[in-house]
Amino acid sequence: MAEEAGAPAALYCRDEGKGPTVLLLHGIGGNHTVWNGILPALAKEFRVLAPDLRGHGRSPAPPDSHFTFRELEGDLTRLLEERAAGPVHVVGLSGGALLALRFVLDRPEDAKSLVMVSGAAYTDSHTRAVADRWSEIYGKDGPDAFAVRLLKDLYYPDWIEAHLDFADALRAQVGHQDFAPAVRWARAMKAFDERARIAGLGRPTLIVQAMDDAVVDASHGRILRQSIPGAQIRIFAQTGHMIPVERPTETTEAIRSWVERAESASPLPPTSAGGTGPS
User: What share of the chain has pLDDT > 90, as a percent?
Assistant: First the structure.
């Protein structure tokens, strides 16, 4: 059954730097600020677009929003057209990594390469259970208990102990944030499964995964690496789900070197069937 799609949303977008364009996509419940630790460094070499997806951050959600991938992809296409940002290097985190994969599969002409951070080819029972637990805790126990659960699930324990100010700020943010759009996107994401198509992905692909990810099991990185022709993988030990937050320097370097490598590779065909890029 075709996914529903309402009116396109006008996305707020941080737009900095010059050069090849890198599109950064945050995950469920997040916004462009998740990239604050890496965006300034990337913008020294590239043009960086970091939008707030519909219903998140500063971007409104039209009343008829369904938060399907088709809808989110349409928003991104409109954004790239408005910004005259021809084929881009697409980088996604968590739910944004799933959206990035879907976007590159559906619109290869708009993509030069793909970087999936804490992503997967499908939503498995473990990730669905984590999302259900978040929803239950938020509904029954309130925002503060929900924030504590997020900290435990999203970040490596030692990192949180060393960044207690960050933990306090997140708890304060959760207290006033509207999570209705996040809940609706999470529901749409439960059916996500692109395993049948990823072997035909014809864009250079980098997988960035954390060994201690409690939301998306690290095994998904190996599945992606084995299924996408020519894909490369970078694995971080003692790191949780939010890799760009915990490891900003390493994440910046991984993206920077990957984009430079993809830029120097031979031109790719305009369809998803074809070259695999750097190997």
Answer: 87
* Beta-bridge mates of residue 209: 235
pLDDT value of residue 268: 55
CA torsion 182-26-145-138 (nearest 10°) is 10
In a domain, 244, yes or no: yes
- pLDDT tens, position by position, 259-275: 999 999 855 554 433 33
Compute the distance between CA of residue 254 and CA of residue 42 in angstroms, rounded to an integer: 11
What is the count of structural domains for the chain? 1
The whole domain housing 213 covers 13-124+193-264
Residue 213 belongs to a domain: yes
The answer to whether residue 276 sits within a structural domain is no
Q: What is the mean pLDDT of residues 42-63?
A: 96
Quick check: 277 pLDDT over 50? no
175 within some domain: no
| This prediction's pTM | 0.93
End-to-end C-alpha distance for the chain, whole angstroms:
36
Q: Is the dihedral of CA 109, 262, 12, 82 positive or negative?
A: negative
Please tell me the predicted confidence (pLDDT) of residue 123.
Answer: 97
Average pLDDT, the chain: 92
Half-sphere exposure of 170 (CA within 13 A, CB side): 22
For 205, the token pair is: 């692909």
